[in-house]
Amino acid sequence: MRAGSMRSWCLCQICTCGSDYRPYEIIQQPRHAPEEYKPNQGEIDLGTTYKRDFNSYKIQPVAIVRPLERQQVKKGKLDTVPTYKDDYRAWDIQKSELYKPEQSYYPPTVKFGNSTTFQDNYVPWEIQPRQSFKPSSVVQRPTVPFNGDTSHHLDYAPYQLESKLARPKEVYKPTNQPFEDLTTHRCDFQGLVGATAKICRPAHTRVTQNAQFEGSTEFRDSFQPWEIPPPKVKKVQEYVPPTGSMQLHSTSHLDYVPYQAERVIPIRPISHRRNHHFPFQGKSTTKEDFPAWESCRQGLIKKQQQIPNPSGKFDGLSTFRSHYVPHELIPTESCKPINVPLQSSCPFDDVTMYSTEYAPKKQEICPASYASPPGYIFENTNSQGHKFFRKITPAVKAF
């Protein structure tokens, strides 16, 4: 059984658990230790069928068939004329004269006074707002008096109805016999004052102990704080630069030979632009005939109010208030009998099945509340802190 926080577990089952289940000593199984590895002495035969069947042959580098480039460098100046310069010589070409006639037209300085076909055919007109065909919302009062005849009034023919027989209202006549208001509840329960029922529940006796409560639990006893060593920090090896100077030369840097090259002259032809000294005339007939006019936004067209506002104080009288006639409310007579308890001379029988069949039992105290349970003998404590008790069996005398 557990101690500490597990003392609330009832020890009533110690008799079966302690007698049937005995603790056995657990022997740890021996662990198999692997044998130390010892390498075999001698050399390993690494020969394969590939090495045995395919023998290696000496391979010579392939000879280059391309002839070596011979660079003949002479210090003297090369004085030769190539075939291109010899065949294609520069000739003295004279510039051809232009056959374009000279400009004889000069724009007039006086304003052009003639009108165009656009100005003659399209005369500007004054813009007028369109007439609205929307019917006016003003109520027009007719001069002829109103004729209230409708198709229903003209086509409907009234018929004379027969007079209905008025049924006379029956007068209520109470009966001469008395009203029987006796129910089963009033017959069986006559409302006698009897003695209160006795409580058959046994008195509650609280078990108290004078011993001080031990705050130790299984968790506190089994799990003790252990010191955790700090984690090991791996040391970083210090960087040691290599000795000597670094060779930064590459094959491109070593084999590259710089040459002086001249910039290519562009062969784009020279543009011959004509410069006119007279000013540009940016006027047109559209700009002169259609100048910018100041436009104003048309305002809102508000209609005048036709119905005048009412004057005077509002009456506030509706048709419901004027036609409603108040009537006096007559309450309905209640036929409910008067709730008066009936008294009887017979005593009240308060015997119930609970009071007759209930058998009080003795309340047993849980053995876990004691430090040493009475009737049990302490045997041992296991590794987890559980205490085991054995029940004392009385000795039977032989006859």
Automatic annotation (TrEMBL):
MF terms in GO:
microtubule binding
Write out the transmembrane intervals. none
- What's the protein name? Stabilizer of axonemal microtubules 2
Q: According to the lineage, what is the superkingdom?
A: Eukaryota
What family, per the record? Belongs to the FAM154 family.
A single GO CC term for this protein reads: axonemal microtubule
Question: What InterPro entries does this protein's entry cite?
Answer: SAXO1/2
> Lineage in the entry?
Eukaryota, Metazoa, Chordata, Craniata, Vertebrata
Instruction: Say which species the protein is native to.
Output: Rhinolophus ferrumequinum
Q: Which PANTHER family match?
A: STABILIZER OF AXONEMAL MICROTUBULES 2 (PTHR31516)
